[in-house]
Amino acid sequence: MVLSGETELPLQKDEKDALELQGLVEAQRHLMIDPEKRPAQFKTFFQELLCLGTLVFAPAAASMSQTAYQISLNKVSEEFNVTGGLLTWAVTSISLANGSVLLFMGGLADGIGRKNAIVISFIAYALFSLIGGFMHNFVALCIMRAIQGMFVAGAVPAGAAVVGTSYMAGKRKNKAMACFAAGAPIGAVLGFVVGGVCCQVLSWRAVQFFYTILFGLLSITAYFSIPNDKVITMKAIKETFKDLDYGGTLLSVAGFVLICFSLTQVDATKKEWKTPYIIALLIVGFFLIVGLGFYEYYVPKNPLMPPRLWKNGNFVCVISIMCFSWMSFNGSITFYAILYFEEVLKYSPLHTTACFLPLPVAGIMVNIFAGLTLHKIPGKFLVIVGQIGFLIAGILWATQSIHRLYWSGPFLSFICLVIGADLTYNVANQVTLSAIPKHMQGKAAGVFNMSIQLAASVALGITSAIVSARNPYYGTSEETKHIPELFDGFKNAYYFAIGCSSISLLLAVFVLKVGTTGNAKDLEREIEENRELEDRDTTREEVIQEESNIGKKEETL
């Protein structure tokens, strides 16, 4: 450091050598980092394994509950005397609430600490699952499930950020991300098993009590296995709640709820689409979502959706592909496949569950494959293969007869469906987390998961409307008395799935540009981001210290 008025002296040879050595070490810093070693945050391999196993249930929570209720629809319908589009609220209430507040909860998780957010989310999920098990009113049950979805929304972006920030780019990170990505599809299949067994042996209420026990235990494992990242102080909590985007949250919740309500209410009214309030609510919901986009861009200082995300072409493309994929996967094929087995073929819940068992087996294999090959096979190729899988699954369902052999129809479609879901999810998750710096990855993961949850919920509303348009008995007490018409109506949903898969396949082929992930280039980019983040935090600490010193001097004076 040279003071004013002094002459800078020439550097001695030893000083020059030291500076050159420092520069060489800094330039080759990435060569000394081994991304395949266990992250320093985990004291033992067992802690790392337990942490990843716990985090898998963050994206699995909503899908587990959703599919468990899909398999339980007949039992819920009988108890509450609800059918058609209204019945879908038993399924969509949790995913719709989860998707609507994901961004808000992601911002909250970044403020209070990711570990704290996950533990609190799991405890609240368990609590409201318990309360929901005692509900004797359909609306009250849907509200309890919606609250479950709202609370567990904080665990999804927090979990993704924990994995994203704990590992450096490499094979180990790819495997960790593959484990986390497996949560949503495998959680969906686990929900089928839980719902089928509970309904067959006990009742649909046992599903709620099972999740109370499961997530109560997971909150304990989360507390002891997830690394600490932030200490809560009252000042930090106040700052967090002060900076949250309440306006954006209100617009997103209101917009998507109105859209889904209007679509699912169509078959519950006598005049259907001629009912004035249905059209009015649909239009209002659409304009609220459009307004959300303008509001997020111009108004809040700390928006739910960081504008820089939408400037990344690959991110926009991959989010679009995921939305159309989940509209086909959760919003069309799996939902109406369950109704096909239970209402058309008259299978029991346990028998229906057995039909879905190939999904978890294939899902585990596909995720292992993805974790081992993401650094070798370009993501674009994997996504294209996944979209072809979605398309074949839709075609198999749309062209099958009522009594088609299981192994030549549903079984093959389920294998193709899992290939599509798991390959696409893995690549999309990696693209999302690489599109933004580490300190904003919670929000990026929130945008990603919000998009697919809401896409599935909206798709259920759309398919409910188009199925009822083809089958006038759908949604009435007469629907199971006209089986050929019922199955024929379901095919509208499968055609919709084919349309969604076709769009996402075209996007993957002609627009998406994704190479391999977890290579040396990604590692070097992450190191540079970490260095910038450290410099920013150091500067911030210096400013805070300077302000503190000034305050002390003023107090002394």
TrEMBL record:
Record-annotated membrane-spanning stretches: 45-66, 86-105, 117-140, 146-167, 179-203, 209-226, 246-264, 276-295, 315-338, 350-374, 381-399, 405-425, 446-467, 493-512
GO MF term (any one): transmembrane transporter activity
Domain Major facilitator superfamily (MFS) profile: 46-516
Domain of life of the organism encoding this protein: Eukaryota
Any one GO CC term of the record: membrane
Keyword Membrane: yes
Cellular localisation: Membrane
Region listing for Disordered, in residue ranges: 530-557
UniProtKB keywords: Membrane, Transmembrane, Transmembrane helix
Annotated membrane topology: Multi-pass membrane protein
Keyword Cell membrane: no
Protein name (database record): Major facilitator superfamily (MFS) profile domain-containing protein
